[in-house]
């Protein structure tokens, strides 16, 4: 794992995921610091292969690959924890649930540790290890192909395993959100798991913070109309109205 990021660097990293390019002068104006300070931030981000240097600024490393597991884990922690607590309050004891891919989903797992008699299904190895602390929680890990960088399982075996069940709750994250396309991800195999997860759940709960909007993920998961509830931290009124019109109940944490 590389150097930890300071708050400004985390904000720059979130910002560049949502746009095609960022100029040094834009970052100077936004953060009210010197161009020398911003260039130092850029150097640290580029050294960790989190951004690509361009003439006069930076751009995202790739539209087909998400940030590393370690760096996603350290971004927007307070928002992810608040989202997780909000989701946990809506899950009754004794529920069956599938917890999918993503770091916000892992925070949900931790928030569920005091629940009783859950039946947990997952393809997320970190989720499985979190629930490993609770011997009274049934945990099933679906078979599949290990993605070493992301600590999860994907592929045809995973999809076949998912289709054998119908869960009370499906908890999923995503790589990006688009007002027209809905939920997106960076990896088609990851998107396929989330797509089937939504189909196999009575209640599909999406967990995603505000920074997922307009990120350049390319693999489609599902339109918003397939989601029952969307837990997030901040959202414009226009986007809230868009979701409500698609039949989604929006839950914003404060």
β content, as a range? 15-25%
Radius of gyration over alpha carbons? 18 Å
Largest sheet: 7 strands, parallel
Strand order of the largest sheet: 6-5-4-9-12-14-15
Describe the global form: globular
Describe what this molecule looks like in 3D:
The protein is α/β, with parallel strands linked by helices. It folds into two domains: 7-61, Winged helix-like DNA-binding domain superfamily/Winged helix DNA-binding domain (Arc Repressor Mutant, subunit A); 71-252, Rossmann fold (3-Layer(aba) Sandwich). It contains ten helices and 15 strands. It has helices spanning 7-18, 24-31, 35-47, 69-74, 77-89, 103-111, 125-131, 156-162, 188-199, 237-245, and strands at residues 22-23, 51-54, 57-60, 96-99, 119-122, 138-141, 145-147, 152-154, 167-172, 176-178, 182-185, 201-207, 219-220, 229-232, 249-252. The strands form four sheets. The chain has a seven-stranded parallel beta sheet with strand order 6-5-4-9-12-14-15, sandwiched between helices. α6 links the parallel β4 and β5 (119-122). The longest helix is centred in the first third of the chain and has 13 residues, at 35-47. The chain is globular and about 55 Å long.
